[in-house]
């Protein structure tokens, strides 16, 4: 009986501990905590920019790496410096990682001197030095299930794998991006899926993010070595560096077609940070030169610019997302050459009225729209969409707000909303027209004309409205201007794949992988990422409830993940915030940037005085960042030097101002 009592007590303690831990991890980041987040401490010890931060698994140690070529290990809970050592690097440190299952004894660093160093912290010595890369090493990745293995990404376009159990102090090339993208491609970041360590995500030059199956790559190479004909090739043989199915690509659907325009404006697209959600089902990317994107790895979706609606049977049954009867479903149909309109009949479910509290939110959004507060309207519509995801009217209204705001990617998000509205209500008049306008703004001119013609057929009473006439004129003018450049359309594959002028450097395998790429689920706007190529974005909270990102304006931004709404902006650096690393189990955030300090943030007591680092005008900060991203690089440089440029402080960002100037209410007014 005594043994039974002891076992019972042990089991009870275990259950209570597991329960407390589960409760802590589930609730450690909540909305009230986010809204009280403030600066707790500044850790001083570096003499240069702090380019990387890393928590250990328990969260009681924090490592930092700097331009001063030192790494420091901190006790962040007591604000103490535990250890400082020169790493042996001769240039800026860009990445620092604890090696899993080493008792926090082994630390790995990668730097601008093209070297990867392994350090034993107990004796403050560098025990391995790898010099296999030929350009700057930007990121190191580790994996819990691979305790002696780690990976590096460098600007020589290579992903290398290291095994510390091997006698030879060399690494092997896991992925060579130059075989796919040419000699100028640079790898910038990488990360391993925390739940399935066989998957490695890589960010590099350009808008595409790559997901690799490490096990498939190793098995492929092992089988190649064991094959009797491994060394015998005919003239037509071509050895694939990666097996089929070992790589998946992800890209924001509008970016490939926008890339030539960005290049002409010296605006570089490059993934500066990639990370998985805690459960491994989502991939977050901070896209340099653009926004932050979240990709769903479970429910993948193709880019919406390849999707088209099937025709609605009549025009009189349902309009603008309101009451509907039997009609025709538009079913989302995939077609690799653009929008193909096809007939089909199906049942359309009656539009469910919004409950009173959501109706109030929608009315508030409509009022914000009427006052030209586009971002406020978008956030309110998004809040309502989260609660009523099958309401066509909300998607149609949010699309109108996106089209008015015109930030980078807004027309593509509007197109996605229009397609969603039409899928829910195939006879949504405004969504059909806005879809044609979005296609035009996204440079899919022929598809826009086809969509507009379809709109006129469905809604003949609108065929000669001022809005239709204006869009018709715009489309035909664009088609006429493109007729002299018809050669650009020949032999280059779909327009979204012509992402570079160096077409001969893109392999056939790369073209196929890009063609099969998947689109994003959510987009987060407000920050600016154009000045540094190490800027991070991270999940915050064990359930990934929030998204955080650094910014060129010295602030860091916090969004709700599901609504994409911006909820908090804090001033984290005098110049630029690059690094944001959330604590593994507390509402505790470490940040760094150009300043030679590490800053720690947590919820401040309600009794504490007003937090001076809170950016109250979040909308103003977001607008300024959108203008900064679209500014001439020289103007940005002058702005950073303290000059005020008129062009940076007026007007909208990312689009022309005359989009709706002559259009009727079919597009402009929300329903």
Automatic annotation (TrEMBL):
Positions of WD repeats: 43-75, 86-129, 540-569, 570-611
Pfam families: WD40
Organism from which the protein derives: Pluvianellus socialis
Signal sequence, renumbered to the chain: 1-20
Entries under Gene3D superfamilies matching the protein: Tetratricopeptide repeat domain, YVTN repeat-like/Quinoprotein amine dehydrogenase
Record's keyword annotation contains Signal: yes
Protein name in UniProt: WDTC1 protein
Region of interest (Disordered), ranges: 650-671
PROSITE patterns (UniProt xref): WD_REPEATS_2, WD_REPEATS_REGION
GO cellular component assignments: Cul4-RING E3 ubiquitin ligase complex; cytoplasm
Alphabetical UniProt keywords: Repeat, Signal, WD repeat
Domain of life assignment: Eukaryota
Entries under PANTHER family matching the protein: WD AND TETRATRICOPEPTIDE REPEATS PROTEIN 1, WD REPEAT DOMAIN-CONTAINING FAMILY
A Gene Ontology BP annotation from the UniProt entry: negative regulation of fatty acid biosynthetic process
